[in-house]
Write a structure and sequence with these properties.
310 residues; mainly alpha; 12 helices; membrane
Length: 310
């Protein structure tokens, strides 16, 4: 029986901050590596390497990956949705600006908050928590608003692909919580997703005419190694573990930090300017996350009730 907590504790918050900060750094890594390694070929290498690392991890830990436990339908669906998210991101970036794509992509927590309570009533958000979600999203919009106009003529297609990616991300979380995957190990849940993506990404890369190669700079391989070992393996495995033990609606709110961490790393590593918009956005996202994760007040027994809280 899985012990599911009703709120985020210090360990969950620390893991979430680690994951979101690295995912923000990962956006910088992808951005600075894509000049050498095409995006979907980059994703193919990452996911294939992560599949190998996860298989070795499971062999070492004795975690079964191929036993029949009824998770195959949900696992394949999660894998296809996970792949659709990456398609939306990587192909969408070819048609719209990164700023617009980021805003559409981070509609994912709203998808989780709207749909998951139908399957898990304990995940329902109260009014103040919805307000927090809206404030956090507004923070992301503020952070990227000044560059909204710098898009090409095929912007609408890119925006639609970004929105598809955000919806797919939210539906992946829903699938993990609402199917037999909810009882599967974090390793097996992740295996479905990265294995399907590792199988599909190379085919998409070929269809898009990307040039494959291995003669890349030391920096490019270092970047891909970090994206593989920490990004696609360690951080995603931590995320799957958290989805098994903590409220998905609350941990999803932390993902609004990821694009802001990317901007912060841009300031620190790429000498990009620190703007007032970024400071305000960080404050807004932090406030929103605090509101979403406020503990519920204990219910008060009413007169004529049974004498205890329901």
């Amino acid at each position: 029986m899985i012990e599911r907590k009703s709120h985020l504790d210090a360990r969950a918050i620390a893991l979430l901050l680690f994951c979101c900060s690295f995912w923000g750094l990962q956006q910088i890594l992808i951005k600075t590596t894509v000049t050498e390694v095409p995006p979907l070929w980059q994703a193919s290498i990452r996911m294939s390497g992560a599949v190998l690392l996860l298989w070795l991890w499971c062999r070492w830990r004795g975690v079964p990956l191929f036993e029949r436990d009824g998770t195959l339908p949900g696992g394949l669906l999660a894998g296809l949705l996970f792949t659709a998210e990456f398609i939306g991101i990587y192909i969408g970036l070819q048609h719209t600006s990164a700023s617009r794509l980021t805003v559409f992509l981070y509609t994912a927590p709203f998808v989780v908050a709207l749909l998951l309570p139908r399957f898990a009533p304990s995940e329902r958000l109260r009014g103040v928590q919805w307000l927090g979600l809206a404030i956090a999203f507004a923070g992301v919009v503020v952070a990227f608003s000044e560059s909204f106009g710098h898009s090409g003529s095929r912007q609408l297609l890119g925006d639609a692909l970004a929105l598809m990616g955000g919806i797919a991300w939210g539906l992946t979380t829903l699938t993990i919580r609402a199917t037999r995957l909810a009882t599967a190990s974090a390793e097996k849940t992740l295996f479905y997703q990265i294995a399907v993506t590792a199988a599909v990404s190379p085919m998409l890369s070929i269809l898009l005419g990307e040039r494959w190669g291995v003669s890349y700079s030391g920096y490019a391989w270092f970047s891909i190694a970090l994206q593989t070992v920490i990004g696609a393996f360690a951080s995603y495995l931590a995320w799957m573990w958290m989805l098994r033990h903590y409220p998905a609606t609350r941990i999803s709110s932390f993902t609004f930090l990821t694009p802001l961490f990317a901007l912060v790393f841009g300031v620190l590593l790429l000498s990009e300017p620190l703007t007032l918009q970024l400071v305000l956005a960080l404050a807004g996202v932090a406030l929103g996350i605090v509101l979403v994760n406020r503990k519920s007040a204990p219910p008060v027994a009413q007169a004529g009730a049974t004498g205890r809280a329901n």
